[in-house]
Design brief:
Nucleoside Triphosphate Pyrophosphohydrolase; alpha+beta; 8-stranded mixed sheet
């Protein structure tokens, strides 16, 4: 993995962002979509990530623009009483938009290849997702996204000199849609079981950032797609604010439930800290701790 960012504190506010863990059930069981970012990308270059990105001004849509949930419903789903409802809807729209832009999939939508190609073409000429979808008669389903967690980068980030406030969602990948990867941002799009992804990370075959490591570890423990979706429907999204510290010159990231974290209630089963060694982040008890 690239050398982490162990610089000074970043005092700028975290950027609102959204990411989607796309799921499908295949022969080996639960699989999740991962994309390898271009090596020259400013943030997490060369790392395998879930589709996602920053909130765009165009994601702030009129509630009557064709989405299937109200701003207030989106706020309630995220479990954030202080969040402005319009911002909650925008985060859902951003999750759909980034997923469609980066891998060509649009969860919850029943549309043919020609319609999706036309939608992609309109967006490439400057139209926002909701406007383009409305012109083509495509109904957007933000309800297809289930809030999963919220990750807030600490003031002293460990893998980037930028801070993000990212809402993670899970969604079923539409089986009738084909992946169309964004060549500007992505060099590989691959389906993997969470276990296989963690094993490939451990063997040095792929790079993962801490949010992906811990999210994959959690998914692996849940098993199948139905269990993951049920988990998302029956509990509030976990708030994850990592707290890093240096231990004898080694960067350690701890999470809720760790003895060194300010919140003592764990938000997932499994390890509560990662240590940077062997040029990557590892749990103290090795791969078995991630796999459970």
């Amino acid at each position: 993995m690239a050398i982490p960012f162990f610089g000074d504190a970043v005092d700028t506010p975290p950027l609102p962002s959204a990411t989607v863990m796309l799921l499908r059930e295949d022969g080996p069981g639960l699989q999740v979509l991962l994309m390898r970012r271009h090596g020259n990308t400013a943030v997490l270059g060369g790392v395998h990530v879930f589709p996602g990105g920053k909130l765009d001004p165009a994601d702030h849509v009129d509630p009557s623009s064709g989405v299937d949930l109200s701003p207030e419903s989106c706020r309630q789903r995220l479990g954030e009483p202080d969040l402005e409802p319009g911002q909650a809807l925008a985060l859902h729209v951003a999750a759909l938009r980034e997923t469609f832009e980066e891998c060509g999939l649009l969860p919850g939508v029943t549309a043919g290849a020609a319609e999706l190609a036309a939608l992609r073409g309109r967006m490439q000429t400057g139209a926002d997702l909701c406007t383009a979808a409305g012109l083509l008669g495509v109904s957007l389903k933000v309800s297809a996204l289930l809030p999963w967690s919220r990750w807030i980068t600490p003031r002293q980030p460990s893998v980037s000199n930028k801070r993000f406030d990212t809402r993670f969602f899970v969604a079923l990948a539409p089986p009738e849609q084909a992946i169309v990867a964004c060549a500007r941002e992505t060099t590989e799009v691959v389906w993997m079981t969470p276990r296989a992804a963690l094993e490939r990370y451990w063997s040095g075959d792929i790079d993962l950032a801490p949010p992906q490591i811990m999210s994959l570890s959690h998914l692996n423990r849940l098993g199948g797609v139905d269990a993951v979706l049920n988990h998302a429907r029956t509990r509030a999204p976990a708030l994850i604010a990592p707290e890093p510290f240096d231990d004898g010159g080694v960067r350690v990231i701890c999470y809720p439930g760790d003895p060194a974290h300010s919140l003592q209630e764990p938000v997932w089963p499994g390890p509560t800290r990662l240590r940077f060694r062997n040029r990557r982040f590892e749990p103290e008890d090795g791969l078995d701790a991630l796999l459970g």
